[in-house]
């Protein structure tokens, strides 16, 4: 009986480390932490991936109540949070792009409550849904799960991840958020800039015209038309952003 309890405890110590990393990633990543993916689904995915890992790789036995075990708990949570942060920054870039388009169209006050980012403009909500569909269409969930499982080989349990090089890469990736948002929103923003210039010339030539009664409907109509025409370009740019996200996650794990 004691031998069986010791064997069960040994297996528990072996499964707790991958469980921590996987759970931290699923809890804080942008796609898997939305309200549509319930806690029960995330917990089921974590258990399945943990059992799969425990059957295909040797996991070091570390007592979680010792000082080394507490350090490893923080380390595994940190690895999962870093991988989730990369995806959060990509989703934030999509939201920033929607905010830029909404501001150009005059829809900044038309907000919706997003459970992840709070109150965001309706165009940002539309871009977020579009980004989620693009992520699933290119098989992003499978790629992310593959990277998550591969992280235990590229970055094994017991190795510290907190380095100065890691902080520099995260900072550079955060700067790319604004570049990606600019690329996604560029077609609509540039077109509406010229529409604004045209409305300005019209109101200058005919001062009796009310700029609010002429300019706002023109911006809304032009904005929706250009947004509809630029959807293929927006989808390509969002797909490029997700590909860069996967490359960045792998780069952080390999140190390349």
List keywords for this structure.
mainly alpha, two-stranded antiparallel ribbon, 8 helices, 2 strands, 3% strand
Structural write-up:
With 256 residues, the protein is mostly helical. The model has no long low-confidence stretch (mean pLDDT 79). It is elongated and about 85 Å long. It has a two-stranded antiparallel sheet. The chain contains eight helices and two strands. The chain is 78% helix and 3% strand. It has helices at residues 2-28, 39-56, 67-105, 122-137, 140-154, 164-205, 211-229, 231-254, and strands spanning 111-114, 118-121.
- How are the strands ordered across the major sheet? 1-2
Q: Count of helices?
A: 8
Helical residue percent band: over 70%
Write down how many β-strands occur, each being a DSSP E stretch of 2 or more residues: 2
% residues in beta strands: under 5%
Write the layout of secondary structure elements.
Layout: H1 2-28, H2 39-56, H3 67-105, E1 111-114, E2 118-121, H4 122-137, H5 140-154, H6 164-205, H7 211-229, H8 231-254
Antiparallel strand pairs: 1-2
Q: Quick recap of the structure?
A:
This protein has 8 helices and 2 strands.
